[in-house]
Predict the 3D structure of the following.
Amino acid sequence: MLGKIGGRDADETSKQWPSWPASPRARRKAQTRSEVPIKEVALSDSVRRYSIPVTVGGTAIEAGLDTGSTGLRILPAVLSKDDALADGCLRQRGLRLAGTRIAGKSGHAKVAIGGLSASITVQLIDSIGCIARIPNCPASRIALSQFGMQGDGLPGEGFRAIIGVNMAEAEVASPLSAIGAKRWIVELPRLGAGTPGKLVLNPATTKFRALRCCPSQPPIGCRRVDCMMR
């Protein structure tokens, strides 16, 4: 099973791992271990995506899981007015996925993932478009109301939010770090097994004994480790 380890190794300093500071409540829960199911979703074009359950304010969301980006980013008409507080008129540069430019305001919301929760920064998306060099990106084929994150531009497919669990710095918090996870393991579902995978937050040290790790191409500003089950 292919997986990824995120977070900070015990022998590394915080300077080597740029991250958003956790709230006091998150720090108190820093060592809380929690498992979150990872669901496999097949799009109509046969592409497979993965999601985890996330609660923002009082709204439960299936968010597309992305290990290559940073931040929780939410499409319009998903949250209630009390779920998140937008930061005035502050605009964010946004995220680029498959040539699609995603933009919106920054905001704060209480986010719960598994047994961990904290008030963190999120992006409240209000527009999508294509970058200049890819004018026929997925956003060019679909209205915002039918657009789904990781949905390949297919109407009504994909997710209403994306959660990027990369440790690289961005305009919004790295969500797992911000809620108090010091490290985590992503175990994707086995193809055809019919059972979910799992995101393990604050795993026990003994969990790593079953993994064989090797360095991979790092994102800007930090190192990532990819692992496989022995």
Q: What stands out?
A: The domain at 20-182 is CATH 2.40.70.10 (Cathepsin D, subunit A; domain 1). Helices lie at 24-28, 175-178. Residues 24-28 form the longest helix (5 residues). The chain has two helices and 13 strands.
